[in-house]
Design goal:
By secondary structure, this protein is of the alpha+beta class. The chain has 5 helices and 13 strands. Mean pLDDT is about 90; it is low at about 1-5.
């Protein structure tokens, strides 16, 4: 009897964490969260647009060392849904857009290693922003893939077009915002969205109150009209009785 066991493929572990902190500073963490929220909310009705950030992206099957964690990324043609990690060979789609928030610890990697990697992976547009206005020569820079190579994206008056999303990145001089040229509106941060929702809810409540008051006024007017008509009938009948007596 053979004691040998059949060969089985060794399961490869793809960890969901690389042990590094999410962001270097409060400014980086807040901006990253804001951008992910803004883009997620903008594409909420499009089932095949996946927005994420600080999620490990594995790009070589069988080699968990080949990974990167973009601060913010958007992938078209990919279904929404929570993921532990993003595996290119399973998703069958590289992100269309990556935004990196450069910092003291990451800016060299952002402009060198990640630039080369994202270009090799075929990510259409790559943007770098320096939230502290301290590490990049230009606080907002971008690159677009053209014939397999990155070409600089023109940044005019602090604005750069995200061609694949139809949106603009805007360097306000204090932070990075996203602008929708079609609506003429800046995408809302979570705080702005919550405030707008409260204002809309309050406006709706006032509208309901106004409608209720209008309905009450109409009811009272209707009742008054019915009473007036009834009184007019009573008076006519009384006059008729008085006339008949006098005759």
């Amino acid at each position: 009897m053979s004691l040998e066991t059949p060969d089985r493929p060794i399961a490869v572990e793809y960890p969901a964490s690389d042990g590094k902190p999410m962001a270097e500073t409060d400014v980086h963490r807040q901006l990253m969260s804001d951008l992910i929220f803004e883009l997620s909310n903008f594409f909420k009705d499009e089932a095949d647009v996946y927005v994420s950030g600080n999620l490990l992206l594995y790009y070589v099957e069988g080699n968990p060392g080949k990974r990167v964690a973009p601060d913010v990324f958007v992938a078209r043609g990919v279904a929404k849904g929570a993921r532990r990690v993003y595996k290119l060979w399973e998703e069958q789609a590289v992100p269309d857009v990556v935004i990196e928030l450069s910092s003291r610890q990451t800016w060299r990697e952002d402009v060198d290693e990640k630039f080369e990697l994202y270009q090799k992976l075929g990510i259409k547009e790559y943007f770098l922003f320096d939230p502290e206005y301290d590490y990049l020569i230009d606080s907002l820079v971008g690159y677009r893939l053209e014939e397999g190579r990155y070409s600089p994206i023109k940044v005019k008056s602090g604005r750069a077009l995200i061609e694949s999303l139809g949106l603009e990145l805007v360097d306000t001089g204090e932070t990075l915002r996203i602008f929708d040229p079609r609506s003429g509106l800046t995408l809302q941060t979570p705080e702005e969205h919550a405030e707008a929702s409260l204002r809309a809810e309050e406006a709706s409540r006032l509208d309901r109150q106004a409608c209720s008051r209008a309905e009450e006024t109409a009811r009272l007017e209707r009742e008054a009209r019915i009473k007036a008509e009834a009184e007019a009938v009573r008076l006519r009948e009384e006059l008729e009785r008085l006339k008949s007596r006098s005759d």
